[in-house]
Amino acid sequence: MSWPKSGFLESSEYPNLFQELTMADLAFVVTTIVVFALVALAAKGVAKL
After folding, report:
1. What is residue 30's predicted lDDT score, i.e. its pLDDT?
2. CA-CA-CA-CA torsion sign (11, 14, 16, 18)
3. Where would you tag: which of 8, 12, 19, 25 has the fewest CB atoms within 10 A of its CB?
4. How far apart are the two ends of the chain, measured CA to CA in Å?
5. Is the dihedral angle over the CA atoms 31, 36, 38, 39 positive or is it negative?
6. What does the DSSP assignment read for 15-42?
7. 1-49 residue pLDDT tens
């Protein structure tokens, strides 16, 4: 007996959804790291004044 697939990410309507969510998460993490690096550089520059 074959059971139908259930689950949001397994749906055939959204074949690339998991990959898109992963790329969005990766972009968010990279952007956050870049922002914190820029803030750290700005703080270092202000401290030298």
Report:
1. 97
2. negative
3. 12
4. 74
5. positive
6. TTHHHHHHHHHHHHHHHHHHHHHHHHHH
7. 555 555 555 556 666 777 778 888 999 999 999 999 999 999 999 998 8
User: 17-42 burial, b for 16+ CB within 10 Å, e for fewer?
Assistant: eeeeeeeeeeeeeeeeeeeeeeeeee
Take residue 32 and report the two structure tokens written for it: 């956050």
Q: Give the span between the Cα atoms of 25 and 30, in whole angstroms.
A: 9
Residue count of the chain, please give it. 49
CA distance 16 to 5: 16
